Amino acid sequence: MPQLLRVQCFNVSRDGFGTGEGQSLERPFGHADPNPLFSWRAATASFVYRTEPGGTRGLDDYLTRDAECNIGAEIMGRNKFGPQRGPWENHDWQGWWGDNPPFHTPVFVLTHHERPSFTLADTTFHFLDASPAEALDRARQAADGRDVRLGGGVATIREFIEADLVDTMHIAVAPVDLHRGERLWDSHTNLLDRFHLEAVPSASGVTHLLFWRR
Fold first, then answer.
1. Domains in the chain, please, with CATH?
2. What sequence ranges are listed for the domain Bacterial bifunctional deaminase-reductase C-terminal (predicted)?
């Protein structure tokens, strides 16, 4: 079976924004309140940060579990790793996820500035100045036959789509408008020349858009 490059459980607003304007260390999503974007997933029984029993089952929970299925490596842009720009000045700061990041695989962070790899629990972060195709080759080697997840952010997903490297995408559209920030698309219909699409509404209020390569 081929190794797929998958976008999983990526959240956008109804007007197509994946994050707000003005990202900072204290506000990873800038002016946007992330709760309306992510509440569907946080409510599920399989949410990675759930600390108590309970949570919803059904479609949202299935897609939350599927995000981890057969993933051997992750690629993310620098903006998903952290808000810093330019050369890395503080190697002590190691991302927004604490001592036990939720990835549990090698993670390849795209950046134009060198930084040594480091490991937290069972996740190792590598920093690459590479094209999308080169980064995907590295990630596939590290994934040991499993799929590669493209974690975001928005600019990174757009770059990989434009390079025609993405095989499947699950985008959860929340019923809220952000009005400004980083936009994934003007309309998801612009992708139908290269992807099939099924739109599945959920009782939580989000609409799950499932894309797969034509």
1. 5-20+31-83+100-213 (3.40.430.10)
2. 93-182
Question: Residue 191: what are its φ and ψ, rounded to 5°?
Answer: -95, 0
Using DSSP's 3-state secondary structure scheme, residue 79 falls into: helix
Q: What is the pLDDT of residues 2-38, one digit of tens each?
A: 999 999 999 999 999 999 999 998 999 999 999 999 9
Angle subtended at Cα 184 by Cα 43 and Cα 2, rounded to the nearest 5 degrees: 80
Residues 6+ apart with CB under 8 A from 97: 103, 120
Amino acid identity of residue 212, one-letter, is W
- Beta-strand runs (E) in 80-194: 106-110, 118-120, 123-128, 147-152, 168-174, 182-183
Beta-ladder partners of 76: 109, 152
